[in-house]
Amino acid sequence: MDVPATCECLSLVHEATRRAALAEDFDPAVADEIAVAVSEAMTNVVEHAYRGEPGHAVRLRFRPGPEALRIELEHRGAAPKSLPAGVDLGRLARERRRGGLGVHLMRRLMDHVVHEELAAGVCCWVLERNRPRSRPPSPGSES
Amino acid sequence: MPDLQVATRRAADVAVVEPKGFINAHTVAEFEGVLNELVEAGDVRIVISGAHLSYVASAGFGAIMGLIEEARAGGGDIRVAALTGTVAHIFRVLGFDRLCRTFETEEEAVLSFGGS
């Protein structure tokens, strides 16, 4: 599906992703996590790749596989120079920063997160969440 | 129904902020605006009651992160209560439980300021 690259469409992307994950038999709580992660990728495209400019679109694809649900967000905006390796929340708070959490959150919620350049001027966020039997336990899921 | 409604009320000398709906990059301005107004007014003992949040994206956590040291510098804090489901899980996986004190109930969070 093609979606206008605007913050107004974030809830549409969130709900479409949640429904796609539920249709693939993911647990509702996991479907919510996948939806948040994909919304983060969409936010990154809107705010950084297109820098909030109107008139752009994102192509959203859901590709269910035997081991994982793969979600792709293809866009024609700017590619990030690099993805942050991690975050220091204490430092960000001391610096009164409000941003810098999106990629970190995507990585914590998904099993595989990359940003690829498919061709000249065409980029894609790729996020995968393994199906339950193939996902290793995460540090935040023991409680 | 709007995507986000943010109510503010008082419990003793603590401001209780109660967002209802979801917080993402589209709705965060309203949530952040309420927090900003409180902190700028020196009303820095703040409890965010998350009982009616369906989800919070990084923009919402970023709003707290950007103001929590300001509140602490003013002698207060931003504390969080009554998180449930996905919101509570994301709070933990982001590591916010190490940045921000959390409580099971709004009452506990409000009372915690009594001894601080």
Dominant shape of chain A: globular
List the chains of the largest interface with their residue counts. A-B, 37 and 30 residues
| Elements of chain B, N to C (H/E) | EEHEEHEHEH
Helix content of chain A: 25-40%
Biggest beta sheet attributes of chain A: 5 strands, antiparallel
Work out the helicity level of chain B: 25-40%
The average pLDDT value of chain B, as a whole number, equals 93
Task: Name the average pLDDT of chain A.
Answer: 89
The end-to-end distance of chain A, rounded to whole angstroms, is 36 Å
- Give the N-to-C terminal Cα separation of chain B: 38 Å
Give me the count of strands of chain A. 5
| Residues in β-strands, percent of chain A | 25-35%
Helix-strand category of chain B? alpha/beta
Task: Note the main sheet of chain B.
Answer: 6 strands, mixed
Structural class designation of chain A: alpha+beta
Shape of chain B: globular
Report Rg of chain A.
Answer: 15 Å
Total helical elements of chain A: 4
Cα radius of gyration of chain B in angstroms: 13 Å
Account of the protein in words:
The complex is a heterodimer of chains A (143) and B (116). Chain A has 143 residues and is an alpha+beta fold. In chain A, 35% of the residues lie in helices and 25% in strands. Chain A has four helices and five strands; from the N terminus they run E-H-H-E-E-H-H-E-E. Chain B has 116 residues and is an alpha/beta fold. Chain B contains four helices and six strands; from the N terminus they run E-E-H-E-E-H-E-H-E-H. Chain B is globular, with a radius of gyration of 13 Å. The mean pLDDT of chain B is 93. At the A-B interface, helix 1, helix 2, helix 3 and helix 4 of A face helix 2 and helix 3 of B.
